[in-house]
């Protein structure tokens, strides 16, 4: 499996993976899948912020993707990112999510970020919760019944992981963001 920077040529596969999760799952609270133009705009937004969007290529296909975004836009949050990971159903439980998340964590640490937050859709999403716990995330809270999808109330589960020195020291400079690589 190769982890590479997402490009426009991957958008069709990314859109199909995300559409599946929007229509059949509870990881995303979107109820209508965005089209390829919207997904391309999201990729450009991530690239414009100089944050990474990675794809996992397995057997010549996009098996999953992961991107990092600002947890919040205010300056005080500049050292904190949020991860988003989606895996093609045919590649689940094959290490795709684990490899993508490890790659994203390494990128964030190398660029001087100090905290990574995961906002997991629904407290029943055992796959994502397990993935994040294995990667060193800790449960920090649950927002109960904040979403309504598929005719039922859904929770948002918040997990957090320190990056690098975490909060044990103050940073000497702002995080280094550069091209999406």
Automatic annotation (TrEMBL):
Alphabetized InterPro entries for the sequence: Acyl_CoA_acyltransferase, GNAT_dom
Domain N-acetyltransferase: from-to ranges: 1-160
Protein name, per record: GNAT family N-acetyltransferase
